[in-house]
Structures
1.
Amino acid sequence: MSSIPPSNPDEIDPSASVSEIPKNPLGGQTLIVDQSDSNSYPRPSAAIKDAGPQDLIYIRAGQYEDRLFIAEKPIHIVGAGRDQVEIFSRRSGPLYLQKVPSGHISGITFRYVGSDQHSAINILDSTCTISQCRAMEGILSGIVIYGPECRPTLSDNEVCSNRESGIFTFAGARPYLTMNDCFHNHHFGLAVRDDGSSPDLTKNLCHHNMLSGILLFHGAKALVLENTCEHNFHWGVVMTPDSHTSPEQEQLLQANTLTNNPRGALIITHEPLSEIGR
């Protein structure tokens, strides 16, 4: 299979053009995925099987029907861009991470096209970074993040057109979510549930979601700072009384932009899901 050795220790550049293969600063090979080239890997999952901890997988432009399951090893994947690379799956979510200790995934659209209860991206107890990707059309939330050892960083992703929320953090996860664009989801842009769940939510944009921008419930905690929640169908932020934010509730309106939501900026309620029968 095609491989290109790294030439210098520069950082991986996920913004490389479609024709430009990014340099690998990790010390390993670069494994090329290109379904139109018989000398390359036909699917990303095939490259993952061969990839070592210092290898970089580069996915050229194309639409790939595949499922990426990555467990208990570092992973480094760069796509040619989320508008050029789509990985879709009919039978399960196209990306599942389980106890991934490190790594970076960027420049890919993950799309679920089946009818069962799956998300586009599923992250369990992992500590990698996902940036400049797109997660769409999940029957559950677009991205689910869960587990007490789950500490991923999600930055500059688009999360849209999912049947529940955009990004859902629960079961004790503590991700860092920044500059993500969550829109056109059927429930909330960002949702956080459970005692022990404590994400940092900074500079995210939640708009045109069919409930509210951000939801915190069942004892969730979160840093909520410099987010913009506007043009959602209900409120900017919805919280239950047992949830907690930093800054405190009184300062949330000053620390975030929660305007142009028809029902108001913020509500504290015991029944945040009553309008969907839960």
2.
Amino acid sequence: MADEPTLGEVVRRFEDRLTDVRDDIQQLGTRIDKKVSQDVYDLRHEALTARVATLEATRERDAERLVATRRWLVGAVVVPLIGVLLPVIIMLAGGTG
């Protein structure tokens, strides 16, 4: 009989456990409040997907613009320069021989 708890001890232990359970439920509620809802997650994911698509399209346009600039540089500067210098080089090489 000495090992058995008294009624007061049983009530105290029960209240302690009840307090622990309430604290656990409160912590779970706090965690759930911090969690993002599926709708918000989906909206953010769609916005991020749209942003990535826009950035990829911009990168492709920039790459096309770079290719066009290189073509313009070759067509407008290098080819006429060779057209002017090549006859001079041929004349100088032919005149010295």
3.
Amino acid sequence: MDVNDRLEQNQNGSGPNLKPDEKRLYLGTYRERVILAIKVSQINDDNAKSTLKERLEQNPDANLVIDQDQCGAGYIDYLQLAIASGNNYSLLSNNEVSKQVTDPYAIVLAAKTAVNIDNIEL
């Protein structure tokens, strides 16, 4: 591929994506940035909410990504946690869910840069 073609693609936003499957799995972010990931089956778990509250307080610059379609009405509790802690948040709707897993992530707390946390699940 010609260098000029590649530059033009990137300027238009149509260039190749880096790790698209990983970004789908972690709601638009890379694994290395994930602080906590909550699966669909854990949405109504009180432990998930208390753990997230803790992590939000410990990481004030982190962004909470919530897939509304996967959370159902339960997304409101998580949204309120983000607002109360002062963290940024993003709400996804009609998000492309990873086909690689049977219990996908519905909520991801992500840092702006790599944090490389080994255990991101509850």
4.
Amino acid sequence: MQKVKKKILVKGCGVAGLTSAYMLAKAGAEITISAPADSPRGAASWYAGGMLAPYCERESAEARVETLGLQTMKWWSETLPDLVTHKGTLVVAPPRDSAELERFSRRTGGHRKIGADEIAKLEPDLAGRFSRGLFYETEAHIDPRKALLALKQKLKDMGATFVDIDADEAGFDFIVDATGFARIDQDHDMRGVRGEMLLVHNGDISFSRPIRLVHPRIPLYIVPRDNGIFMIGATMIESDDNRPITAHSMMDFLNAAYTIHPSFGEAEIVEIGVGVRPAYKDNFPRVKQEDNHIYVNGMHRHGYLISPEMARQVTEIVMG
């Protein structure tokens, strides 16, 4: 007798929903995904940096973020091998912030200290700009938008059905809710953390890897995309307000980019993005179960780094 497939409704088409849906489909479940028609565009993870940087994240996160992040880097590489770039992360600081660079070094592992010559060898367009840096050679990055669209296409190819929001939950064995900040009114342990980013076009330089600029107040980074596009991010503001970007944040981004290379002063601003990240008190995600409802949420700034582990937990619950 043929085994009946479990029917699963996944609500949400961000990185948490798509990774959960993909793992469940691989495990043999019949998947329906409920999300707006243009998803994953507009999800918080659409505006992410896509840095698979478990060592760098340890600077402001607990040890399990690093441990799980090292595992999930492998998952992304196996699942979307053509989209993961394995060229590490470069952390730099101007001379005035050398103490901050040393503090970053003490709080993180997986790196080596490098000087001006090696910085120039890694990133020729930074030659002569920084005398000291940290190189996290085994880290990687992924274009989050390409990754989300690729996962969505893989699910379609595997027979998953995509429906609009407010789908009828009747007839499903499990409902996996990965709707992020939309659940904040129902999950009172969760809060919103506002994040802002810029996409700019700068055809005068190229980078091979994410560049993090040590900053005394907020972490700032530049991540290369294709065709001269760079993502500059990202603020972490304790607020669930999704109004347009503030002038203060815009100045921080542009000043940081200019500090990394003056050519960013002539860059064209292509897009300004604002998203509210769901987060719990310890900034670590949760998988919660209430009868046949499973809630995966609270990704904070670790969506791409941690979501495959949360998806694995969801799959273990659903598939028994």
